[in-house]
Structures are given as C-alpha cells and as structure tokens.
Amino acid sequence: SFKDCIPRSFQLQIRRHNALTRLRLRNIFRRFVRAFQPGHVSQQVVMVKYLATLEQLAPRFGTERLPVCHLELLAQAVGQPYYLRDAGQSPPEPGPELATGPPTHEVLVTGTGGIQWRPGGEE
C-alpha cells in the first residue's frame, strides 16, 4: 500500500478524509509509481518527486512554529537578506531575564519559505 511509504502522522490525516479522497490519493500514487519504472530514473530523483508531491498534498508538513520571548532583529536584515556568519565566537549566554515573560513574537521555520516571524505570542 502507498501508506507504507509515508509518515505515520500523514497516514492518520489521510484516514480522516472521505473514501473518494482516499481513492484519488491512491490513484495519484499509482500513476506516480508507474511514471518511474526501474532503470528510468535514479533513486534521488524519485525522492525529490516524492517530497514535492508530499508538499502539495500537505503544505504545512515539516514546518515548525515557535513562540519566543525575545526577538532581536539586525538592522541589515530589514529590506535585504542577511546571513550571520560564524566568526569563531560562541553566542553570548542568554540571561534569565530573556527567557521569562509571555511570548512577544512567533517564528515560523519551513524548508521552502525559510524563517519568518510576526509579532504576537501563541494563539
């Protein structure tokens, strides 16, 4: 069954759909497997296609949302991409005052969208 090839949490999500939706998913997976007969493509290509298909079926799969108590934005990050580079220094230890209090921002980390944040705590 195609359900043996997907994460268990996604299997549970599929079980909640009606029978017609489950039949459609089964047919999509069957066509996907037929398109990649042995010898035509590498295993890496099949995995990329699988992940792309999974992303279309479950757009929020693999995202992580974190409430944070303190978010400090660098001036360079406004309006243009900025990447922190390791200068061989370890980051400063956070003080206890930074770890307390209600969340002030929410950070969303995704594989395709990168890191995003917004004001506000948990909803």
From TrEMBL:
Domain of life: Eukaryota
GO cellular component: cytosol
One GO BP annotation of this record: cytokine-mediated signaling pathway
Entries under InterPro entries matching the protein: FERM_domain, FERM_F2, JAK, JAK1-3/TYK2_PHL_dom
Region (Disordered): 84-123
UniProt keyword terms in alphabetical order: Kinase, Transferase
Residue span(s) of domain FERM: 1-123
Pfam families reported for this sequence: FERM_F2 (PF18377), Jak1_Phl (PF17887)
GO molecular function list: growth hormone receptor binding; non-membrane spanning protein tyrosine kinase activity
Name of the molecule in the record: Tyrosine kinase 2
